[in-house]
Amino acid sequence: MPNKESLSQETRSLIKAQISRRGVLAGAGGLGAVGLLAACGTKSSGSAQSDVAVDVSDTEKLARWANWTLYLDYDSDANKYPTLDALKASSGLDITYKEDVDDNNTFYGKVAGQLKLGKDIGYDIVTLTDWMAGRWIRLGYTQAIDEANVPNKVNILPALANVGFDPGRTNSLTWQTGFAGFGWNKEKLPKGVHTLDDLFAPANKGRIEVLSEMRDTMGIIMQYQGVDISGSFTEDQFMNAIDFLEKKISDGFIRQVKGNSYKEDLISGDAIAVIGWSGDVFQLATENNGKFEFAVPESGGTLWSDNMMIPSTSTHKKNAETVMNYYYDPAVAAQVAAYVNYVCPVQGAQAEMEKIDPVLAASPFIFPDDAALSKVKVFAALSPADETKYQSAFQKATGN
Amino acid sequence: MAFVATAAKKSSIVRGIKRPSTPYLLLLPGLAWLAFFFIYPLINLASTSTQTPTDSGEIGSYVQTFRFANYIDAISGARDQFARSIVYALIATLLALAISYPLAYAIAFKSGKWKNLLLVLVVAPFFTSFLLRTIAWKQILGNEGPVVTVLRWLHILSPQTGLTASAFAVVTGMTYNFLPFMTLPLYASLERIDPRTLEAAGDLYANAITTFRKVTFPLSLPGVVAGTLLTFIPAAGDYINATLLGNPKTKMIGNVIESRFFEIVDYPTAAALSFLLMAAILILVMVYVRRAGTDELV
């Protein structure tokens, strides 16, 4: 891992290249308006990145948080987020919580331009998946977390305390962790889905959906083909899995390739078996009298985490740290886990969960033991060039 | 075009009375708007379309190298989706025309006091979001929905087959979503037809069919041309219907652009494809307008 300082240098040179390109364009265009716009861009980006945004937390009691849908304990009767409201009351902070992240790539596409120019993206905490978090940290788009303000950081699970994309967790903190595996309709498939062959059984043809998250869908197919996805696999091995996926699509097995919205298709019956996320399927099962079930594939599932980070453009760093610290309190973490049903990254939360719901405290999908963890792998970090190559192949295979 | 003509006429009147610079000053806000929101993004897009990745290979960073082969790469990688977009949009346009014409005709000539209510009903779907309306079709065409139930009962569909996640659903969704864009211009031009021309046709012993063929339809042509353009152009670039109602084999060019832009972060290819789509539509529309000869009609 190259250190952050040298990378922000690189980012700076990129910004400079961007400016000069615009300058040339404005000259060639000869249009007053274009020149004016380009000038605006130059002025604001000149001061960008070189110094991190000033923290005005003490005067502006505000923290703005972007998270995924159904990812924080929610009381649908009162239309409230209980833990968040408790924090607001105790800290005096005004916290705006938005379910604005629907897809890592789409969210990145939305804010990348502003991050590059050092303009406020409107959030003080963003919650993104490992590989995307890695990209932000690599590009210098995050601020280091001040441990003095986050004493609860020590509660992080040992397995998550040190990750390749952020050694020592200096710039990120795990929000939730989860598995990708098989979800199915128990009424239609009483025998369940435990292998990829079960999933692609002829009877399921046209009623199977897989995730649009490349690492999860490909990770499961590759492990079925005997490839270790956490190690350094070859391009051929990846492409073999692409061929498998392409074949299943062209033969009409796979109905659609999508993100969270496979849930609606499971409910409507348009899909009866999916490659999906553990927490989603548990939430569905709870809401539908146990009609759905989740299992990690016998050949192996994937493990991923979403991480809280403070964008480089945030001017409320300390407030953001207050929020992070609060959610690393085991009692609060247990309350969140009881709702979202994903793997809780906070030590001590299991003991707290005993008080809320002993059944959930015993769930291997919220508090996995070593046996459960041995069946899942984290997809290896990809170089930018490989990432582009593999993502292109995956997009092409899925019809794009 | 009629609008442009009147505007020109008016400005010449103004010029006669006031200082000659006034019309140009009045044009300024419009031109500035065009420059900011149309020309500048277009130049930016053109510039992006010939860029190549930087040496570092970092995701999303590109430098200008004027690589025009980007266009060839872009089109050769998305030929199927390109063809599909044109074909789907064409079918949706024809279907929308077939549905809208009788509808607009009825509203214009036969609706009496219900005219305003019917027009409101045509526009009413606009009050809900495009996304929601498309998602509603998922339910209408869904396996438990009314359409499939009836078709299965009639043994037109086998119990195993459904209608969603198919080309049929995508085209249906597009036809529905763009229907008002077809109906309103048709209604406007039909409503403007002078009833005396129809009476004259009757006086000359033309029967109903001949009257329609020789009088009503030719006089409604500006509406047909405007309606088909307003339907075809957004339909060809649409990707929402293909995303929500289609399957991996019914993806359109809009989906490819979206995936290139957001998923792969390949801005040059996305930009090149956008330009190609724009060019293709422009050529098709020009040929169409020429053939329809609407210059005198509109």
From TrEMBL, chain A:
Q: Which Pfam families match?
A: SBP_bac_8 (PF13416)
Q: Has keyword Transport? A: yes
GO annotations of cellular component type: periplasmic space
Q: Which GO terms describe its molecular function?
A: polyamine binding
Q: Where in the cell is it found?
A: Periplasm
Alphabetically ordered keywords of this record:
Periplasm, Signal, Transport
Which protein is depicted? Unannotated protein
Organism encoding this protein: freshwater metagenome
What lineage is on file?
A: unclassified sequences, metagenomes, ecological metagenomes
UniProtKB/TrEMBL annotation, chain B:
Q: List where the protein spans the membrane.
A: 24-43, 86-105, 117-136, 156-179, 219-237, 270-289
Cellular component, GO annotation: plasma membrane
What is the protein's given name?
Unannotated protein
- Fetch the PANTHER family from UniProt: INNER MEMBRANE ABC TRANSPORTER PERMEASE PROTEIN YDCU-RELATED, INNER MEMBRANE ABC TRANSPORTER PERMEASE PROTEIN YDCU-RELATED-RELATED
The chain positions of domain ABC transmembrane type-1 read 82-288
As for membrane topology, the entry says: Multi-pass membrane protein
Q: What is stated as this protein's family in its record?
A: Belongs to the binding-protein-dependent transport system permease family. CysTW subfamily.
**Predominant location of this chain?**
membrane
> Which is a Pfam family this sequence falls into?
BPD_transp_1
Give the location in the cell: Cell membrane
Its keywords, alphabetically, are: Cell membrane, Membrane, Transmembrane, Transmembrane helix, Transport
The GO biological-process annotations, alphabetized, read as: transmembrane transport
